[in-house]
Structure formats: C-alpha cells, structure tokens
Amino acid sequence: MKIHEYQGKQLFSASGVPVPKGIVAKTPQEAADAFTKLQGAVAVVKSQVHAGGRGKGTFKEHPEQRGVVLVKSADDARNNAERMLGSTLVTKQTGDVGQKVQTLYVEQGLDIKKELYLAVVVDREVGLPVVIFSSEGGMDIEEVAESHPEKIAREHFDPGMGLLPFQARKLAAAIGLDAAGAKAAESFLPKIAKFFVDHDCSMAEINPLVLTGENKMLALDAKVTFDDNALFRHKDFDALRDLLEEDPSEVRAQAAGLSYVKLEGNIGCLVNGAGLAMSTMDLIKLHGGEPANFLDVGGGANVEQVTEAFRILLADPNVKAVLVNIFGGIMKCDTIVTALLTAYDTVGITVPLVVRLEGTNVELARKMLAESGKKITSATDLTDAAKKVVATLGA
C-alpha cells in the first residue's frame, strides 16, 4: 500500500523524524494561502501522486510545467497550482499514461548544504531490514548503483534492537560526511529505522534527505509503502488510501479477496496459487506470449469470487485470450468449472479460452467441460496450455 508524500511526512513527524514545514493545498487559492502562512521568501509546490521523478515530470496539458516547482510569492504559487491541479503529470514511473494531480503540498524553502539519499527496505536474502545510504541525493539510485556503486553504503539491522548508534556512524563515515553531518546522521538514521519497523513498511525512501546549513537533517521527501500482509495491524492506515491513485481493477479484485496485478500483455491468466501463477506467466512468455495480469484466486475461492475474477479479466480491453490453470487441492476443479461456465453465460466470454485442470475432482471437472457445449479448449498440462493459448493469437 502506497501513500502520498504529505501523508508520509505527517507520519514521520508523529514518530519524531524531522521534516520541513508544509501545508496541503487542493485549490490554487489554498496554495497561495499556504505560501503566506509559511512566511518564507521561497517555497516549493509539489504534485502529490504515487510516483517518483516528479521534479523532472511534465504535464500533458502544460508541457512547460514541472511537477515540483520553486515559487517566490503567493501569486507565483497560485499560478503554478492552477496549471498543476487537475492536469496529468507524466514521469518516468507513471509511464505515458500519467497520473492526474488532485492534491499539492506547499513546503518551506530551506538552506540546503548537502543532498543525500536514504532508504530502508527488507533484504530478503539476509532476512533483515537494511539501511541504504548515499551521498548522491536527488538522483535515481539505480543510476548511482550502476555508475558509482562505491557511493552507496548498506547496513543491516536487527528489527528488535533497531539501528544502533555505531551503525549510524559507520554509514555516515562510509559516504564521507564530516563530523557535524555524522552527528546529525547518528540522530536521524535510527529514527527512520524505527519508523520502518513500527509501521510494518516494505519501503521508506527519502530522496533527497537534506543536511541544512545549520547541520540539521530533514526528510525533504517521503516515499512510504506498507506491507499489505501487515495492514490488519494498522486499521488506521485505511484512511490514508487514495483509490484514485490505484488501478480500478486491482481495487475491485482486492474487495473480492483476490490477488490481482495488471500487466501490459494480452493473455489473461486465472490461476490458484501465487507460485503457480508466476510459473504460468513464465511459460506464456517462453512460448512467445505476454501475460496481461497476475491473478491468484487462492486456495479457498468460491463460485462468486471466481466469477468476479473472470469479470475483472474480461474488463481489460487488452485481453485477447484467457488461460485458466488450476491445480485442485483445497480449490476443487469442479468449483472452477462451475464458475467458469457461469461466467461464460453471465459475463460473456468472447475471447479464446484455454483451460488446464489437475487435482481434486479433475475427472468430474473435465466431464463438465466436455458436456458444456461451450467453445473451450482443454489442455493436458501447463506447457500444452501455454502453447495453445499463444497459438490462438497467431503468435
């Protein structure tokens, strides 16, 4: 689950992580008023979308307008806000489709001495959270990792103990901070590490993290993503969701208890089990096709959930064929076929449909398919299914 920068900074502040002063604005006048309230000579107006690269991003309707701008007056803030609000911001991460800006964040200007990069993520190979620290703030960390890997420092920490002071000093030394910067890092880094653990984050990224002229560290950005599997422990996070920033199909699937991620291909996949779903997508690609989605109906889905899964799949105009791959365990094969036949009649399946079944009640399920009179292609195994569904598209 992603949240906006301003929401992340509100959570940072509540947890003792230093952030600049800022005010949320949803209208041009609110942006102008925010500039006045901040009482500074300059301020920064920031588009709030769930994507990085906003500073370099431009708007479809106003190609000259950047997604993050420095303003020097209330009128300047208002004029920029008029172009930004309601317009579509295109960044490296949004793709060509872009994302409509509904909210702005007006933030105080700072005397910036140095820009740094900071992130906390989970290192799944080690099984621990890791702090990633770099002297190259404001840049894409992928580019830094490729061209200057020596400028990136990493430090794993025990989630129970947190990032210890000596580890913070070690990180500061690794990226060449002076004594004043190291002291600021020793205070700041353990706080963001604690925030990461306490809030069950999958990522907490600050780019840039700034060191001011007064040698204070402040989070100039906040990109926070929560682990969906831990949201049951944080019911208050529901209020932070912005459904306008999420794919409607993914929101619909989540409401039905399904795991769905939209992709860019044209072969819809309906599978039970995350691992099997990944294997199914791999085999589709191996045989020359492109999966349109990841869709895991899980081991205990009922007829209504599977029918909804078909509705979600077929609502995607890019889907030109569907592959159903079921290994029946808890999820019985005949349940899938019942749902499939229901969807065929109620939703209207007009694209080629290939079905591979194995496991519990498979013979009954195959018999139901054979006697249905529907235009459905059966497959003997997963490789056969992948080849057949790709062949339907003339690949």
UniProtKB/TrEMBL annotation:
Task: Enumerate the Gene3D superfamilies for this protein.
Answer: ATP-grasp fold, A domain, ATP-grasp fold, B domain, Succinyl-CoA synthetase domains
Q: Which residues form the ATP-grasp domain?
A: 9-235
**Broad enzyme group:** ligase
> Which residues does the annotation say bind ATP?
46, 53-55, 107, 110, 115
Q: Which pathway does this polypeptide act in?
A: Carbohydrate metabolism; tricarboxylic acid cycle; succinate from succinyl-CoA (ligase route): step 1/1
- Is Magnesium given among the entry's keywords? yes
Assigned GO CC terms? cytosol; succinate-CoA ligase complex
Note the InterPro entries from the entry.
ATP-grasp (IPR011761), ATP-grasp_succ-CoA_synth-type (IPR013650), ATP_grasp_subdomain_1 (IPR013815), Succ-CoA_synthase_bsu_CS (IPR017866), SUCC_ACL_C (IPR005811), Succ_CoA_ligase-like_bsu (IPR005809), Succinyl-CoA_synth-like (IPR016102)
Which cofactors must be present for this protein to function?
Answer: Mg(2+)
- Cofactor binding, per record: Binds 1 Mg(2+) ion per subunit.
Q: Return the EC number.
A: 6.2.1.5
Q: Which reaction does it catalyse?
A: succinate + ATP + CoA = succinyl-CoA + ADP + phosphate; GTP + succinate + CoA = succinyl-CoA + GDP + phosphate
Q: Where are the transmembrane segments?
A: none
Residues annotated for substrate binding in this entry:
272, 329-331
Specify the superkingdom.
Bacteria
- Signal sequence span is none
- Keywords of this entry: ATP-binding, Ligase, Magnesium, Metal-binding, Nucleotide-binding, Tricarboxylic acid cycle
List of residues binding Mg(2+): 207, 221
Q: Which NCBIfam families match?
A: PRK00696.1 (NF001913), sucCoAbeta (TIGR01016)
Main function: Succinyl-CoA synthetase functions in the citric acid cycle (TCA), coupling the hydrolysis of succinyl-CoA to the synthesis of either ATP or GTP and thus represents the only step of substrate-level phosphorylation in the TCA. The beta subunit provides nucleotide specificity of the enzyme and binds the substrate succinate, while the binding sites for coenzyme A and phosphate are found in the alpha subunit.
Q: What family classification does the UniProt entry report for this protein? A: Belongs to the succinate/malate CoA ligase beta subunit family.
Q: How does it assemble?
A: Heterotetramer of two alpha and two beta subunits.
- Identify this protein by name: Succinate--CoA ligase [ADP-forming] subunit beta
Q: To which species is this protein native?
A: Caulifigura coniformis
Its gene name is sucC
